[in-house]
Amino acid sequence: MSYPTYFECFDAQQALREYPIGDAFLQTYAGMSREALRALQQERFLKLVARAWQIPFYQRLWGAAGIEPGDIRSLDDIEKLPVFSKSDIMQSVEQYPPIGDFSGLDIPPPEQRPPVVLHTTSGTTGRPQPILFGPRGREIQAMLVARAYRFMGLKPGATVQSTYGHGMINGGHYIREAVTRYTNAMFLSAGTGLETRSAQQVQLMRDFGVNVLVGFADYIKKLAAVAEECGLVPGEDIRIDMIIGHLGQETRAALRDAWGGAELYDWYGVADTGCIAAEGPDQDGLYVWEDAHYLELLDVEQGKPVMAGENGNMVVTCLYKDDLYPVIRFNTCDITAEVPGENPFRLPFRRIRGFLGRSDNMVKLRGINIYPHSIGGLLASFDAFTGEYICIAERDDTGRDTLTVLVEMHGAVAACVEMAEACRGVLKQKLGIDVGVEPVAPGETAALTEIDKRQKPLRLIDRRAL
Predict the structure, then answer these.
(1) CA–CA distance, 375 with 358 (Å, rounded to integer)
(2) Fewest CB atoms within 10 Å of the CB: 150, 230, 271, 463?
(3) What is the pTM of this model?
(4) Are 102 and 325 in contact (CB under 8 A)?
């Protein structure tokens, strides 16, 4: 029977010309004006909108907002389009199981349908969300990750160990595709602590001479402690040059020191969009890949654009996903802020601060908005703080809401109590409200954060609705 194969569905060399990596990246974009970049974005945006009009999900979403074909004539019109989020995708899945009607997969007849890559979210908060990729979109997504790694300074012939999860979730798979297809590094797909035990991960690092670790910062830091438990000295027995991960607001110094002075690089993306932004060699904010994404920062409550430097929800339009599952104004519900000023590479791309918290994981405590993911960064200056914590929101018999932060600390109990009071003072000053701080021994929050099971540890347990 006749139907297309994966690599017959797109031109890899053309995709690399459109979304360059390595030396070609700087050669293409260094010195480009914002006006020239805007023209490139508009060309890709209009092609994307034309594709989206073929898909029932967008026909329904845009039609309900009174939008008709022809109303969107330029990138200036993007704010006319409604924002959507994961809840809209899940509603599509519920109405049109099992994969919804947002991808466009069912439009061509079976003999013309392109190959499809299917992943899902973890499903820890409910039914997993299906995420579909066509060959072109999938490969460009991998190219953008490789662009980030090479821009950061990934050395030729590096040995990379990944702690991103596999199974049905997307992360570990597309990181492997990025490294093995668009760098010349050797790649060890160790996965999470459930897939490869932490002690075995450390052994792999030593045996194969791993010099680059990629994954989520929390687990990578934990692995340094596991190495010491195994009688190995991070930085001597295992020499890590680079750690590339989702660093959030946790202390970089503690993670760097745990691995003997390794260089740290942050990047940001979500399953639906791929790699959106990444740190460069200057380590001064994350460069938004604006040739591939149009990023809006919108006020959490009113949905209006925020000023440069102000916090806002990241709303993303993937300019490259014009085959399966076009993404136009997707609200990630992740918070960041723009970094003002010029960059040393003369790139036309804006920079962001990285992940600052989730708007849908925000705790409203007596009128104050608190983002649990930001707590670690606020406590980073305390030497006794291990970096591990969890926030517990509760409501007492009088109806008063409280927040207690369980903070892992090194040291004697008496010293920890004194340090907890100091932490409480810092949080009150930074958050504008008094919260409880309870010191606990290293490792005691693991069962609550599920750091050994999850790529992203839990930072909030909300018991108010229980």
Answers:
(1) 12
(2) 463
(3) 0.84
(4) yes
Which amino acid does the sequence have at 216? F
97 exposed, middle or buried (CB, 10 Å; 0-12, 13-18, 19+)? exposed
* Residues 6 or more apart in contact with residue 429 via CB below 8 angstroms: none
C-alpha closest to that of 366 among 267, 434, 455, 447: 434
Q: pLDDT means per 10 residues in the chain (466 residues)? A: 91 97 98 98 98 97 96 97 95 95 93 93 75 97 98 97 92 95 98 92 97 92 94 96 83 87 95 96 97 96 91 96 96 94 97 86 74 83 87 84 91 82 89 90 90 79 76
Summarize the chain as % helix, strand, coil (round to 5).
Answer: 35, 25, 45
Nearest to 278 by CA among 175, 138, 129, 157: 175
Q: What gap in Å lies between CA 349 and CA 111, rounded to an integer?
A: 41
Our CA angle for 329, 316, 325, nearest 5°, is 70
**Predicted local confidence at residue 250, as pLDDT:** 59
Please provide the DSSP assignment of 264-283 as one string.
EEEEEEETTTEEEEEE-TT-
Q: Interhelix angle for 135-152 vs 171-182, to 10°?
A: 70
DSSP state at residue 404: E
Q: Which of 205, 226, 185, 164 is nearest to 442 (CA)?
A: 226
Summarised one tens digit per residue, pLDDT across range 103-135 is: 999 999 989 999 999 999 876 556 789 999 999
Please measure the distance between the N-terminal and C-terminal CA atoms of the chain and give it in whole angstroms.
56
Amino acid at 98: P
pLDDT of residue 123: 66
Place of tokens 């740190």: 279
| Residue 109, Cβ density class (10 Å: 0-12 exposed, 13-18 middle, ≥19 buried) | exposed
What Rg, from alpha-carbon coordinates, does the chain have?
A: 23
Asked if 366 and 432 count as a contact pair (C-beta separation under 8 A), the reply is no
* Alpha helices per DSSP H over 96-183: 135-152, 171-182
